[in-house]
Amino acid sequence: MPPTDRPASDDPAPATYELAFAGNTEGLDALHHLLDRVWQEYPESRRPAPGWQAEFMTGVGEIVANIIRHSIIPAQARDRIQVHIRRTPDLVEATFINEGAPFAGNLEDPAPVFDPLDPLALPEGRYGLALARNALDTLRYERDHHGYNRWVLGKRLEHPESGASHA
Amino acid sequence: METAIETRSPSVAVVRFRGRLDFLSAANAREQFTAAIAAGQHKLIVDLAETTFIDSSGLGALVAGLKAARQASGDLRLARLPEQAASVLKLTSLDRVFHSYSSIEDAVATY
Fold this sequence. Notes:
The structure holds two protein chains of two kinds. In chain A, 27% of the residues lie in helices and 25% in strands. Chain A contains three helices and five strands. Chain A has helices spanning 25-40, 50-70, 128-135; strands at 15-22, 80-88, 91-99, 138-143, 148-156. In chain A, β2 (80-88) and β3 form a beta hairpin. Chain A starts with 14 loop residues before the first strand and ends in an 11-residue tail after the last strand. Chain B has four helices and six strands; from the N terminus they run ββαββαβαβα. The longest helix of chain B is centred in the middle third of the chain and has 16 residues, at 56-71. At the A-B interface, α1, α2 and α3 of A face α2 and α3 of B.
């Protein structure tokens, strides 16, 4: 959606961020701190709402968990995940790249079906991919012939003058 | 993730998770619920005020805790949900399952 009539001076300049992190607590700490930095470096008037930030982090968290649990080969040199974050006035996009086992699931896996009136029958898993899809606008996976996985996660920023909030 | 359990009565306990409730800590959370219920505290309140992030594995731990508590004739209720936790519940429609309260005392009063 093209920009409308908001003053160009309010738009944050496009920016990119990069990090290589391990699939452990310290690595996840670094990733969370990086995302906090991305939000903080927006001009205050253009900063995505906390609810928007929360949804983006939810999508990121699900995909990173999937990479660490199913793709990373622990204790080997290939245990790092690279993330490239691109921020424009209208979009935040995070690309995760790792060398490891391919994604063997189905991006379109439906969310578990449950009856809220029957909690004893609630599924305890399989919420992750649907949760990521619901939290994001873009979720793509590719694998190249060198054995690298590439996940692209994107979420559009909606601007107040378009009638919708950043949240 | 750090966990603290506060006994409010022989059957009521407040479980606090501080940090990320995710795939790295979900198993520990499940163990905490299991131990509390085994000790007779089947009316649980999970205080999420200091839970900085929850993923689907953490959500699964809450679901498991809810089921175990209900099977013991109790319940598991949530209190002080941060934005991200509330978002996860809403995006999975599990906000239709869990009872959530804005304060610990409000949650305790329901038992």
